[in-house]
Amino acid sequence: FGDTLSIAEKETVMSYEAGVKGVLPSGRARFDAAVFYYDVNDLQITAVGGGANFNRLLNADNAVGYGFEFNAELEPVDRLLITAGLSYNDTEIKDSALFTQPCGGGCTVLDPAGPIAGTVRIDGNSLPNAPKWIANVTAGYSWPMGEGELFVFTDWAYRSKVNFFLYQSAEFSDDSLLEGGLRLGYRAAGDRYEVALFGRNITNDRSLEGGIDFNNLTGFINEPRTWGVQFKALF
User: Fold this and answer.
1) Rounded-to-integer distance, Cα 39 and Cα 184, Å
2) Residue 95's closest CA among 130, 44, 164?
3) How do residues 14-69 score in pLDDT, each as one tens digit?
């Protein structure tokens, strides 16, 4: 365990964004879309773990990111609501003189060696926990029943490959994650109460969400498939 105090310089950011918003004449659909670009000088980044279990604050000379995002909401027929979102995010660290310690537990490091023994260069790597693709979609439908309504709802979320640390390794990354949920229930008038059957991660996708790298190859994963019953009341 380390207790060294680390200090970083201030960072400056210049970002640009342009987009459009719209609503279809029928009013049954609306959307927004945007492209973005940002440039960060002296980016403050945290080197987590490595040879010891503590965080070190560093400055990267430069980092850039760019991409697009799109969101939409659609009601093709009465009582059916669909939402969707998609984004692309490309990030890159630009500092040929920046290096850090990789894992202390014997992982398969993919970066070139640094100038000091036991370090690796991270120039050109993406930012940690920054997947290039993120997508989500939801759909819900309801039927009148008595004074309330019977409803069914599903939601899905996806992200592409992600690295958990500043350096790249075969072990401390995850190729993709896709989680889906399902909910079937009854909602009383005025949302006074609701009872529902639900499922989370219904396809039982098992994906890494992070790791501990200072003395072993520990990883932690997302929640497993879960089924249950829920009752909610407002008063």
Assistant:
1) 45
2) 44
3) 999 999 999 998 889 999 999 999 999 999 998 887 766 778 888 999 999 999 99
- Per-residue model confidence as pLDDT tens digits over 164-193: 999 999 999 999 999 999 999 999 988 899
Please enumerate in sequence order all residues whose Cβ is within 8 A of that of 169, keeping only pairs 6 or more positions apart, or say none.
102, 103, 107, 108, 109, 110, 163
Helix or strand (DSSP H, E) at 165: none
| Cα 228 to Cα 20: distance, rounded to the nearest angstrom | 41
Residue with tokens 């690295």: 163
Which parts of the chain are beta strand (E)? 12-23, 29-48, 55-74, 80-94, 99-100, 120-121, 133-145, 148-159, 162-163, 173-174, 177-187, 193-200, 208-212, 218-221, 226-233
| Coil vs helix vs strand at 48 | strand
Q: Residue 204 class from Cβ within 10 Å (0-12 exposed, 13-18 middle, 19+ buried)? A: exposed
CA-closest candidate to residue 2, choices 44, 51, 45: 51
Measure the CA–CA gap between 113 and 187, rounded to whole angstroms: 59
